[in-house]
Amino acid sequence: MNLIPLKKCLRASVFVAVALLPLALTMSSVADDKPVPAAARYQDWNHSGSMWLLTTPDGVDLPADAKAEQFPVLVRLHRDFFDFTQAKPNGADLRFSSSTGERLTFQIEEWDAAKGIASIWVRVPLITGNSRQEIKAHWGNANASSESDGKAVFNESNGYLSVWHMNDQVQDEVGTLNSTDNGSTPIAGMIGTARHLPGGKGIFGGDKIPNYPTGANSHSTEAWFRPERPNTTLIAWGNEQAQGKVVMQFSSPPHIRMDCYFSGGNVESDNRVPLGDWTHVVHTYREGESKIYVNGVLDGTNLKEGGPLNLKSPCRLWIGGWYNNYDFVGDLDEVRVSQVARTAEWIKLQYANQKPNQTLVGPLVQPGNEFSVSQTQLAVAEGRSATITAKAGGAQKVLWILKRDGHESIVATDRFKYSFDAGRVSAFAPQKNGDNGLTATLTVKTIYANEVKTKDIAITISDDIPEPVFRLAAPAKWDGRETIEVVPQISNIAAMQTKGAGQLNVNWTVDEVAVIKRIEAGKLILKRAQGNGAMRVTASIDNGGVTVVQSITISVQEPTPSKDVWVSRPLPDSEQPEDNQFIPRDGPGRGSSQFGSLVYAGTLAAAADSVFVRVFADDQLFTTETAKLTADKKYVLSAKLNLGLIKYRTEFGSRTGNKETLLHTAKNIVCGDAFLIIGQSNAVANDFGKENPLVPSEWVRTFGATAGDPNGSRLKLWANAEARSPGGRSEIGYWGMELGRRLVESEKIPICIINGAVGGTRIDQHQRNNADPTDVNTIYGRQLWRTQQAKLTHGIRAVIWHQGENDQGADGPTGGYGYETYRQFFIDLAASWKEDYPNIQHYYAFQIWPKSCAMGINGSDNRLREVQRTLPKLFSNLSVISTLGIKPPGGCHFPAAGYAEFARFLHPMMQYHLYHRHVGPFNPPNLKRAYFTSAQRDGLILEFDYQINWSDALVSQFHLDGESKQVVAGTSNGNRITLKLKEPSTSKTVTYLDSANWNPDNLLYGQNGLAALTFCDVPIEAE
Fold it and tell me: pTM (2 decimals)?
């Protein structure tokens, strides 16, 4: 017989004991959770009450076959139905159970007895559709300790990997990740506290996360968010590799976009998401199916488009950004990642339960059966409020519904008091459905076990506070040069002040003419016009109520260009020329303005009789200038340099008696015309292939670098321009080089071009920071600084603008489409240009390629090109160039030969506008008007500003009211095209070239060989 050593026996015994321990614990837990009457389990608790979960049509309205297992229900307590003084501080004695006595795990997220509110997550084993389910709350036990436990409510057993409540302590409640808060701040949220992210700050979840989904495994990602701007990231996890990430973006126009790196996880929401409102979004993924739900409703689906996700482990996670690039600005709450694809019923239940006026959980049922309201009629003065109380004994749910201004909405749930705020009204406001805002109906709706009861409170609101009454005072005519003011003259300010409503909000708009303006003390100051015509000025004024709008028209007639005053550059106390410097023309280029000014100014260190400068032209003495010193040894010398292909050098010094002392020299100085190029990547124009055939010219120069970093962008360097260069040093792009070469050849003068373009940028990103115009962090500021350092601000003759690709769908900060705000952004930008470069004579803007770089949504790019086409109506000195017809074409960027065409199109325009050369027709044909040929409306005439050609293939390129195939034939005669329609039409608009279906080889051309500008939704006039 073999005996087992005692040591081994002891080990075996210990092993068996340890092995049986989980089973014992499990059995204990099971035994402990056997249904026990709540009265017996919670006999030491002094208080208890019932709450009901309603999935019936009066609640969440889930179908009968729907179910959600182990669902975390949000229970909100309120002092209206819960006495916080009966419970321990922080709710330590709070408990929940099922109707049969089963203990329910829970987590207290928020407990504020002073405010009388609490938010608790209660895990319910099963919620079924079209049902009423009871849960019980228990409190009032001085000996109880807290059982609040987030990990018990949210864990892998109900699918959760990570849950952030985003409260005062940012942590993953599941415990999967160690989260690092990098600068977010607490703010009142959807549920308790949320986090505010200001941009540049966010939350890091780690870069070695081992247990998140891999490959194409199912998952869900969700959040509540309140954005302040679009084009940001809410939450992102995975890795930056093909099909390897899940990035939830709030994109423009404002909607949700999942960037899953060109995989089947990519999907976008169909509808707009408002800025400034809380929105709930959930993304679910299972292989072959990716979905987005917004506020509980399916809003985007991708079925098998793109390969499956290929997520790698370990992964990384950020909230508010991606790879430490935090760009989200706004508030975030309840951010969650699950290892399952949540069902539509689960998501609907979540939203209905978590939204402010939630419809799932009722209040603690009140004793008795009385249903009454404190009053059935209510009179409230404008700007005042009144409180109504209700009794609803036995009700499982209470809703307050307000009908006002033709709208009906739930304004409160599970409250037994409601404060009605009359707000501002106006008896003169436009009526909706016969309601002018002076009446309302408040309905209390109570849901009982077997019936629904309602009571109405009729509300009358008295119009007690006057709105502003005003007229606008301004000159009837304006020369566009003398500063004028438009002033709102308020006639009832005393009456408004008597009612405490004398504080006015004034908004100004100026239409039909581009201007430089300033708003000061409620009045509009018009500093300069940049166009002619009937300018409409509108003031919108309110004092907290209805906005009152008044407009006036001012006739604007600018002086002729020859009468415009040239603004001379202010001279600094110290200045001297540099090697390779470019001196700009000092004048508008008419008559005798064929020179530039070379300046020496400063203070001598030692006394002298005088100072001198000798200027040599191509090494021949050109001129000598002398000046006496002032008493404090200051001096100013100026020499006029002739324009031309001439190289100048200088010798500057002092004289004392017959002795000369040479103090400074500068060489290789030229004098000519300076221009700015600005915009995005097709203005950068350095992506034109590997080879660079362009050789720098000694007559085409630039200053500084196009770099965006603070150090690189502050480079002080005069040099011959390059098409492209490392770090953007001396870079002006391909067509900038070609344009410079053409101008040198035709005008026989040196050319300076400063290119400040930045790829992938929207027009709002090009605006000036008025508080710091040379801000190195702005595109505008970097270019202005370079131009100032080059002493060229007053010598810039034209600005050339190629931009808009990123505004075709994206919108910048406003939340709408790019085309909706592009015109005003351009006007404001041009106003900044004119203030900082006061002698600008002309602007040139490109109408971009249709759906350039594959951007644009539902024709939004067509409308953006229409805005670009019509910009010249606002200006007296702006021309638009078409990119259509450029061959070879681009689509996004252009090859070298295509960029060379940019310069070829620009060159004759600039010769005409700036050098007064008659070079023949050079503008792309532009539509002037469209009208029906007869009362039968079966023909349409398109009238252009140049003679136009016709091809029968073009019939497919015209759309009436957005509909294709309405044109069957066409003919051209001079500057008119006559379109024959397939039948009489009631259409109101006409469009040429819809980017959704077009061919770059089938274009409308003028007889000058240039492709016509596209147009969109142009109104059709009567016969």
Answer: 0.85
